[in-house]
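Bench notes, afternoon.
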Amino acid sequence: MIKILLATFIMIESKAARNSEIRRFREEDFYKKNSTYNVSRLLDSLLEDYDNNLRPGFSGPPTLIEVNMQVRSMGPISETEMDYSMDCYFRQSWVDTRLTFSGYKDALALSIEMLTKIWKPDTFVYNGKRSYLHTITTSNRFVRLFPNGRVLYSQRLTIRATCLMDLTSFPMDRQKCPLKFGSFGYTEEDVRYQWTTGRGVNIASDMKMSQFDLISTPTGNETTSLNHGLHSTLMVSFHLQRHMGDFIIQVYGPCILLVVISWVSFWLNREATSDRISLGITTVLTMTFLGLEARKDLPKVPYPTALDYFVFISFSYIFCTVVQFGLVHHFTKLGSGEYYLEEMESEQCQRSLRNSSHEIIYEPIKTIAESSEKEKELSGLVGNGKLWRQIDISKCACKRCLASAVLDPEESLNSVSKIDKISRILFPISYFMINLFYWKMFLVNEDSGELMTEA
């Protein structure tokens, strides 16, 4: 009997628990349906007499639009097109008293279809080029509605904007790329823009650029004349500093090495005409190709850049090296120092024609009767009725003796050129001093312009 009563009691308790749980679920479901129903009725009531063609506070004070943006990435930054691209979240917020509500304390996250039913500012980018809204997988924007009537409108944009660059100090330059936006149709009497306090422009912590460093993002506002009216506009300037590593590897390093290689000719024998000319011409052609390649990705600006100056200086030194050998060759006593064998054999040696063990011999010129008084005075050697001249056969000038003298280091007729000796010191020192002046001028004086002050 007790077992039957116990089993009956357990069955009653379990049935009551199930009924309580079912009742609780039904109450929650009813609350959710009722809440959804209330929000839908709330939105319908807000939009019942709403005219989205009129701005908030029409015929009253201007509507204040608070703006902030988060930059997710930047690039590419093009010198040839004079523009830059950036991916950002662009957020606008304003108060529309026609959309105030009560009875629901949290902000309402609304569908983007709501944007077609309420007023929103006609913001555009003044210096924009081919900007677009992201639409994958759906349109990347959202709307939040707060009880006090504040509307938060956010969208993800890729903006391509104009950036007029000054490439005078390229590639050691700093650039200021502005972004300027405001209302296209409303004047400052209807709509005014301002940056959100403390949240104007934020940069993603993981944002990096391959060619530039982002130094600062000063913000400001101004009044712009557009469409015969004064418009409130906001500005932000992205201050960028260029990386030099790529240019040192591809341009500056090779230029310096080419100049140093051209100096090798100062240590080559000045009779090695073909070797020195080949070295000079090769370095000149290589330097020409390097200079043209360095300007391939730059716009055809009407002024020289810092890179152009360096390439021109390096090219001038290589060219002067070739000219320097021309001067050395001009003052060389022996010329190339090479003779063909048949040329040496066709000319008889003066030493072999004189059978004498002395280095000085005397040779008759004319008889005394045939000589004038002036020739007698100049010669000074008279004997046996003849005029004589003195000949030093130890310094024979035939091609055979000259070629032998070149091969004999003790009797070398051509010592190291004084021009080569001077060039070995003058060229490196002057090039080093010019480089010091160059790097000091462009690295120290890079972009000293004033930054924009934040409003």
